[in-house]
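Entry 14. Structure prediction run on the chain below.
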Amino acid sequence: MPSPALEQLIAQLRALRPPDLETRGLDPLQVRRALETFSAAVTPGLDVREVDLMRDLAPDDPRYDDEDAVFMPAEWVVPRGADVTQRLVYLHGGGYVAGSPRTHRGLVTRIARAANMVALVPDYRLAPEHRFPAALEDARVALAHAFDHGPDGEQPATRVVLAGDSAGGGLVISTLVAARDAGERLPARAATLSAWADLEACGESVVSRAGVDPMLPASLLKGWCRHYLGDIDPRHPLASPIHADLRGLPPLLLQVGDAEVLLDDSVRLAARAKEAGVEVTLEVFDDLFHVFQAFAGALPEGRAAIATIGAFLRA
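Output returned:
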């Protein structure tokens, strides 16, 4: 049975859901405005440092002299007392069309505090202005940066981990696969929250949980997929890592709610990882919805889940 706090929150989320969500949710600009309004609260007393990460563009690249193309905005979240050599790279969700370091600052802060780490959150490029693989390229830049740079500048890391929610969760797995294939350094561990790992939306829960999840309308998934991929096959293994070769990845923690449309993405991803010999832990939370951890301030279940993430990342 859901706790009273959970029942109250679900009722509030349903009441806030606009009747024309299915239409407005396909407009990236409206999704961005809604997400900024809904979740961009600043955590009091938080040390946030904005930085620019440099993309590795060849001199003959037509974008080489374009500062907006060369530099990617990002921010460091620095909890009081955190070890600045232990670094979390966090990839925000938003269906690849929305979201930013600002919208996820509260969630990232809680995870960073639980892990006693600083967190680097890249403001990766969004679709449809920047389609696949732009977000993946930016995620790899951020991961590589964290190994050699902290919030105080150039400084080697003693530990780097990776985490993300929703589209950012799928991007976590794609980033690991791409970095492995390129011979780049891999993080010690990685965690996903309600990962969107199958952009084709073939999971049974996309249908069975469509009327249950108060956060993520299943009807929007295919539209966001088109914005992100264009004409690219949604089964591309770096777009939908449910189809990727997962051998050689670091230990994974996959958290997902039992009442969300993306339940099967994490369940199938965990099975694929286990088959590939990856150390993987799957946590399915009864009665909980898409990225419920973002509501840890109101939900004891969210606080417990984040405590588990923190312990896993620092283990």
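The chain has a mean pLDDT of 92.
Filed with the rest of this week's runs.
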